[in-house]
Design goal:
Layout lengths: L4 H30 L1 H8 L14 H11 L5 E5 L8 E6 L5 E6 L6 E6 L4 H11 L3 H26 L6 H4 L8 H31 L1 H8 L24 H12 L4 E7 L4 E7 L9 E7 L5 E6 L5 H14 L5 H47 L1
Antiparallel strand pairs: 1-2, 1-5, 2-3, 3-4, 5-6, 6-7, 7-8
Helix pairs in contact: 1-4, 1-5, 1-11, 5-7, 7-10, 7-11
């Protein structure tokens, strides 16, 4: 292993340098998304509303949004975890323009409305998810994930000081120059957070290539795909109010809290997302798909009642975001994101410092060689 360390260190260094800027972006954007909902309530005070005795029907909220943006279809509605939170509607125009509209669920009035640029949290999510570049950006993020996985696995190998000097490996040396201080800090932080970065990189890569991961799992265990129902267009027909669909979902699948409504197939299919009481997974949902013309059930996907392989796939996002252990693990993911950004930045600085010193030494070395040969 000692013989391999120099080669691993060289590979570790060059992979880190190649991906440093992108990994810094991923680290900072990821850490800011862990408490995204809480942060949004702070930077957008209008999202905090005054609770009342009754709520406006969801269909009426949706009608208000569609009146504000005629011809722009609603893609989803997100319902807050807090009683004093606004309902957030997301819309996407035919030209790809995204809009987000928040509505007071007790009064039915729009409290905040704007394009993507007016919602930093959504913008940062799209950066983290796809670098604002769609499927191509997702592929780049996946490649980054492989790079981070390599760095997180090789870093501890290169760092390993041996059992007898283990404490020394976590010591940050100060007072002997900036280069040594940052090098020892880089190694100590990298070794300390490596396991978390391995988990983050692995889950991130698997989420980018989730269909392929599902197919691999199918080799050893059954895996259920999410429904993708299609409904023929009926130009003269009216659609069932979404409140009736929500009521039907609660009656048939359990009266748990409504968390999302997602629309697909040009709005002809509505997926009602209810909290799942069948799983311990944070954000596990009972997803029921309805034909919006007649209210018929055209598919369902219930967390906690799915094959083991499917549950494994669904746990990826929970692990990646740190939701699996509540506030403590979410804070750990914040530390991991900040550490990733710091490791990337310090790695760049160390390379720059090393390169600068090498350039300064070169003239001196040449002068000595010339003097010795004279």
């Amino acid at each position: 292993m000692k013989a391999l360390k120099p080669q691993l260190l060289k590979l570790h260094r060059w992979v880190g340098l190649t991906l440093a800027v992108l990994l810094t972006i991923q680290g900072l954007s990821g850490m800011s998304l862990v408490f995204r909902d809480e942060i949004d309530r702070v930077i957008h005070p209008a999202l905090v509303v005054e609770p009342a005795a009754t709520r406006v029907p969801v269909q009426a909220l949706m009608d208000a949004v569609e009146a504000r943006h005629p011809g722009v279809p609603v893609s989803r509605a997100e319902f807050p975890l807090w009683d004093d939170g606004a309902v957030l509607f997301k819309l996407t125009a035919k030209d790809g323009t995204r809009w987000l509209t928040a509505v007071d669920p007790y009064r039915g009035v729009i409290v905040r409305d704007g394009s993507l640029a007016a919602w930093p949290g959504e913008w940062i999510f799209l950066i983290h998810d796809s670098l604002l570049a769609g499927p191509f950006g997702e592929t780049i993020v996946g490649i980054e994930g492989f790079g981070l996985l390599f760095l997180a696995l090789t870093g501890p190998i290169v760092w390993w000081p041996g059992r007898k000097r283990l404490k020394q490996g976590f010591k940050v040396i100060t007072g002997r120059g900036a280069d040594l201080k940052w090098r020892t800090l880089h190694r100590a932080v990298g070794a300390s957070i490596a396991i978390v970065l391995v988990m983050s990189a692995t889950t991130g890569v698997l989420m980018v290539w989730k269909p392929e991961f599902r197919n691999v799992l199918r080799i050893v265990t059954p895996v259920t795909d999410k429904p993708a129902p299609k409904v023929p267009e009926q130009p003269s027909a009216t659609m069932v109010p979404v409140d009736r669909l929500v009521a039907k979902a609660r009656a048939e699948y359990g009266p748990t809290e409504l968390r999302q409504i997602r629309f697909s197939d040009s709005g002809r299919v509505a997926a009602i997302f209810l909290e799942s009481d069948l799983t311990i997974r944070a954000e596990g949902a009972k997803q029921i798909y309805y034909n919006r013309y007649d209210g018929s059930d055209v598919g369902h996907y219930v967390s906690g009642a799915l094959p083991v392989g499917t549950e494994i796939v669904d746990w990826l996002i929970t692990l990646h975001t740190g939701m699996f252990g509540g506030t403590a693990t979410r804070l750990l993911m914040v530390v991991a994101g900040l550490s990733l950004a710091g490791l990337s930045a310090s790695g760049l600085w160390l390379w720059y410092s090393r390169t600068t010193r090498g350039r300064k030494r070169a003239p001196v070395t040449r002068a000595r060689a010339m003097a010795e040969s004279a």
